[in-house]
Amino acid sequence: MNIKPFLAAGLVVATLASGAATLISTIGPLGFSVIAVAVDPDTGNIFLLPEFGAEIEEYAPDGTFIQSVTRPGANSNDFDLDFSLGPMTINGTAVPAGTLLVFNGDDNPEKLFAVDKTNGSILAEVVLDSPSLVGGAHIAGTNDIATVQWTGDDSIIRHDADTGISNGTFLPGPQPFDINYGDVDAAEANGNLFLVSDSQQVLRELTDTGLCVRDVDVSTLGISLMAGVAIDDATGLVYISTRNGNVHLVDTAPPTEPDLDGDGITNDADNCIERANPSQRDDDGDGFGDACDADLSNDCTVNATDLGLFRQAFFSTPASPNWSPAADFNDDDVVNAIDLGVLKQLFFAPPGPSGEGNICFGCGI
Length: 365
Description:
Layout (H helix, E strand, L loop, with lengths): L10 E8 L2 E7 L6 E6 L6 E5 L4 E5 L5 E6 L8 E5 L4 E3 L2 E3 L4 E5 L6 E5 L6 E6 L5 E6 L5 E6 L6 E5 L5 E5 L11 E5 L6 E5 L4 E5 L5 E6 L8 E7 L4 E6 L4 E5 L52 H10 L23 H10 L19
Antiparallel strand pairs: 1-2, 2-23, 3-4, 4-5, 5-6, 7-10, 8-9, 10-11, 11-12, 13-14, 14-15, 15-16, 17-18, 18-19, 19-20, 21-22, 22-23
């Protein structure tokens, strides 16, 4: 372990607003390209990696240098850091919550490491089924990780952390969203993924299945060349590291919104903004609650095709061979005349509206 003096040029505090984003503070410039950032859930300290750096560096939130530990794997600029959001199993080894995770995309093959944050020793490692990762994150409540790729279609891959094998791939929301340097992190509160790229001027929020929730504009905050992102789950604030040597702390929380339908869920989080649905059931997983989603074919409009699918499920219950829970718009476990009335009200209209990520509409800024 190598202890060295504080390297940061200082802490710059600002309060610049940009839509749903506010710049809280900036550490830097640090004098090196910061390609990875992570927040220690135990201390609130931030861990960074300089591009092709030999050591992972730890800083207090005010920019005070704490220590450095040896980086595992090859010299890399395709690299990320994260902390496990719960217990994990990596290649047969149990890893506790709060363990430092290292994703190295320049290892051949690419690897995930679990590392002792105090001395850099490797606790576990696994080869990843990943072609070109530049970022990675543990998804809360699962043994899965997500990695974001910079080649091909710039996809996000979910892997079983125990085996490293891919168990699903999706695009990072509406295209184009080119990724060169970049990163992904997962929020502990809802599992949503936050995505950055040095060729973008927005921070993109997705569900963990790839439905786009929103784009947060950071262009007017003086943030550019984004290479790393990390969510401080204790505060909900977001750290963004950049290739020009800064680490920015940003509040991306949208303003408090009204609850138009009075179901106890504010519009920004409600998958049926105009129809009360406190259960938020979404049986077809398209980002629209059953109460406002008669689009059974998922083609983003309610039409004769959906009427035909509804007829197939008419008078069915969960015990019926033709049961379709997505056609049970009021969630009373029977598809009947009440549901037919909902379909008629929504005929020739798109599903929703929804404040959540969904399959029909792109990200709003």
